[in-house]
Specification:
The complex is a heterodimer of chains A (188) and B (143).
Chain A: E1 4-6, H1 7-10, E2 14-17, E3 22-31, E4 38-44, E5 52-58, E6 62-65, E7 70-72, E8 87-88, E9 98-101, E10 106-116, E11 122-130, E12 140-144, E13 150-151, E14 155-158, H2 170-186
Chain B: E1 2-3, H1 4-7, E2 11-14, E3 19-30, E4 35-43, E5 46-51, E6 55-58, E7 62-64, E8 70-71, H2 75-80, E9 91-94, E10 99-108, E11 115-120, E12 123-126, E13 130-133, E14 137-140
Parallel strand pairs in B: 2-7, 9-14
Antiparallel strand pairs in B: 1-10, 2-3, 3-4, 4-5, 5-8, 6-7, 9-10, 10-11, 11-12, 13-14
The chains are: A mainly beta (188), B mainly beta (143).
Pfam families (chain A): PRC (PF05239)
Domain PRC-barrel (chain A): 4-75
InterPro entries (chain A): PRC-brl_dom (IPR027275), PRC_barrel-like_sf (IPR011033)
Chain lengths: 188, 143
Amino acid sequence: MSDLVRATDLLGRPVVTLGGEDVALVKDIVFASPGGRILGFTLAGRGAFAGPLSQALPWKLVHGAGRDAIMIDDGALPTRDALADRSEVHDGEVLGDVVLTDTGTALGTVTDVIVELGTEPRVVGYEIRTSEALPPAGRVGLIPLPDTMAASGEAVVVPAAITKHMADDLAAFGATVASFRARQGSTR
Amino acid sequence: MTRYSGIHGLGIVDTGNATTVARVDGIIIDPVTATVVAIEARAGRSHSAVHWPDIAGFGDAVTVASPGAIRPADGRAAELRGARHDLLRKRVLTDAGDEIGRVVDIDFDPRTGTVTGLVTDNGTVDGARLMGCGSYAVVVRGR
């Protein structure tokens, strides 16, 4: 079973060295592009008055990302410039986008990004709040991310057949992603 | 195997003159080697340490062979002394980033000083898994 998490669940998680020191909090997640790999995290300091840090955490320096902390080796972190010019999840690049099928139906809006952790973490799906097209409207659904899709910053376009691969929660979503990928592979 | 709670508060007895010279007040552990480097000793308001090589035995008292065994911490013991490196009561994180409990006690081999187990409120973790201990957490290897 893979480790699937909501991107927003990673925000605010402590960044802890293997020596047991908490050095920062996750401020934002930096993606390579919509639907892409996680490049890393921007960081905030610890404590009530701590603001954004000038350092960032590239994924390749992450030792482990778990339920309670992001673990890193001891050592210096590079500056944020190492991750610059990328879309951050909080920039509204994806969150709030309308999910539109290729046949023109608005399925809902993106409320979160589902990330598969591991050595090559990547976005595997979106959490959406459904429109009337997926009654009852306003419920939360998880849809897998197609290998190729168009995203503009206002909408993401997905195959209409994606509605057959919707899950209600993360526990069920792992299997949904696996079957959706198998299906995409077989049609090519 | 000795459990730290079993020696906390015990007298530290100088076998040369059979007197209790201090009491056990803490344990200093090197998380990298998973060994006890010293026992913290308290005599009244005075805090000092008994370094591992100076400990003669653990029993109904901790014995030392000379009064000079009770002295200020030095070397690795001095570096690791204090709240930042104290394992007790700290959360335990795996190197995968999952919290698995909080340290409530420490088991060690009284002959070698090897930490054999971290007793948590959620079961005992093999001392060999110990990787680090800082102000935020004790970090252990594996799941």
